[in-house]
Design brief:
- Helix content is 43%, strand content 19%.
- With 367 residues, it is of the alpha/beta class.
- The chain folds into two domains: 168 residues, Rossmann fold (3-Layer(aba) Sandwich); 186 residues, Dehydroquinate synthase-like, alpha domain (Up-down Bundle).
- The protein has a seven-stranded mixed beta sheet with strand order 1-2-9-6-5-3-4, with helices on both faces. It has a two-stranded antiparallel ribbon with strand order 7-8. Strands 10-11 form a two-stranded antiparallel sheet.
- Strand 5, helix 4 and strand 6 form a beta-alpha-beta unit.
- Helix 9 packs across helix 10 and helix 9 packs across helix 12.
- The chain binds nicotinamide-adenine-dinucleotide, the ligand O=C(O)C(=O)C[C@@H](O)[C@H](O)[C@H](O)COP(=O)(O)O and zinc ion.
- The site of ligand LNCXM5UN has 12 residues, from strand 8.
- Its cofactor is NAD(+); Co(2+); Zn(2+).
- Keywords: Amino-acid biosynthesis, Aromatic amino acid biosynthesis, Cobalt, Cytoplasm, Lyase, Metal-binding, NAD, Nucleotide-binding, Zinc.
């Protein structure tokens, strides 16, 4: 068991261990909730809902809600249904929502908890690798049409309970999605971790070393959100890869690509632009990195670059200022900064990046 404290507007503990989903009550009893709504999705429910509920019901009243799985539920209609559910079940200001699942369940349930009766208790029980990122830091949100996370809050959980055993049922695609955020954290905040990652021919949650990798990745996030909870400055660095990543996720939403897969392409784009800004032709975005990512299963090419659509979405990014598009770039490993570009400049950069990626014949198509 490892316990990490995050110091923010409220301090909370991230409890990381195995089999801890069975006794969640131990980690939340100090809050004296009178009722709990466990919100999850259909896939997670199949594997883990009973384990969680059985551990809670001897001590506290529990109601449950199973959502369909997938990004589509991060919207206003599911937000409304959940609010109605909490009201029908008579949760009050002494009650709490437990988000049992990945980032989608966490973002939606957290936003619901943050707004119901102007905010009730909120606990994250992440079950994806990606959720080592999403369950920490308090960003909760829903989408508006294809604009990601545009309606939301900073609402830190009162506790995070991360049972690593749940990761064993993730598909390879979902594992890679979460790994993209690990790679992001390593590039912006832990060069040593990055070096360690790119020497591995295989990565798996079953590896003994993986837990350490996860702790280090969480630590990069913790340090940044502790320093800038509300994203007034350096928290923007956690958006490395996301200006383009979010746009790809939305433009190609019908193509079954995950958040992390889209962000991985966005990370390569930000590395490409960083190298240009640093005046290096082959700097951080090297053939070696592309080959490593391809070998561990990432698909990094787009068969059809819908540049204008991507640009329209990038123009709605929350980091932008005065209609200039913000990209998070690296002066070097661990040295992120934000630079703004005109839409025309970004268009040219996207076209140059598409051409650059086109030279790698071993790269596979994401869409
Ligand atoms: N709030 C934040 O700081 C933050 C950070 C990163 C990403 N996000 C958001 O998180 C979302 C992506 O999160 P995600 O990748 O966890 O997606 P997700 O919640 O949709 O989970 C991915 C898939 O895996 C299934 N699943 C979850 N746990 C499982 C398990 N243990 N075994 C088998 N299947 C399981 C889910 O049902 C779903 O089909 C995006 O909406 C993204 O914008 C938020
Ligand atoms: O915690 C953060 O800050 C992040 O940016 C983490 C990202 O991985 C995550 O995808 C986040 O939801 C993006 O936030 P947004 O503010 O760009 O919507
Ligand atoms: Zn992300």
């Amino acid at each position: 068991m490892k316990e990490i404290t995050v110091k923010s507007s409220i301090d909370y503990k991230i409890n990381i261990g195995t089999r801890i989903r069975f006794n969640i009550y131990e980690f939340i009893k100090e809050f004296n909730y009178n009722k709990i709504a466990v919100i999850t999705d259909e896939n997670v429910a199949k594997y883990y809902l009973e384990d969680v509920v059985n551990g809670l019901t001897p001590f506290i009243q529990v109601v449950t809600y199973n959502l369909p799985s997938g990004e589509k539920i991060k919207d206003i209609s599911w937000f409304e249904r959940l609010q109605q559910f909490l009201l029908n079940e008579q949760l009050d200001r002494h009650s709490a929502v437990i988000a049992l699942g990945g980032g989608v369940v966490g973002d939606l349930s957290g936003f619901v908890a943050s707004t119901y009766m102007r905010g009730i208790g909120f606990v994250q029980v992440p079950t994806t690798l990606l959720a080592h990122d999403s369950s920490i830091g308090g960003k909760v949100a829903i989408n508006l049409g294809s604009i990601k996370n545009i309606i939301g809050h900073f609402y830190p959980p009162q506790a995070v309970i991360y049972d690593l055993d749940t990761l064993s049922t993730l598909s390879e695609q979902e594992f890679r999605s979460g790994l993209a955020e690990v790679i992001k954290h390593s590039l912006i905040g832990d060069a040593h971790l990055y070096e360690q990652l790119i020497t591995k021919q295989e990565l798996s949650v079953k590896d003994q070393s993986f837990e350490k990798i996860l702790h280090r990745s969480i630590d990069v996030k913790r340090v940044i959100v502790e320093a800038d909870e509300l994203e007034l400055g350096k928290r923007k660095f956690l958006n490395f890869g996301h200006t383009l990543g979010h746009a790809i996720e939305s433009v190609y939403q019908s193509k079954n690509i995950t958040h992390g897969e889209a962000v991985m392409v966005g990370i390569l784009f930000d590395l490409f632009v960083s190298d240009l800004e640093n005046g290096e032709r082959q700097g951080m975005l090297s053939g070696g990195l592309i080959t490593w990512l391809t070998n561990i299963g990432y698909k990094l090419a787009l068969s059809e670059w819908r540049v204008n659509q991507l640009l329209q979405l990038m123009l709605k990014d929350k980091k932008n200022e005065k209609q200039l598009i913000a990209l998070v770039l690296l002066r070097d490993y661990e040295q992120p900064y934000v630079k703004h570009f005109s839409p025309k400049e970004v268009k040219n950069l996207l076209e140059a990046f598409a051409k650059y990626m086109g030279q790698y014949s071993n790269v596979k198509y994401l869409v």
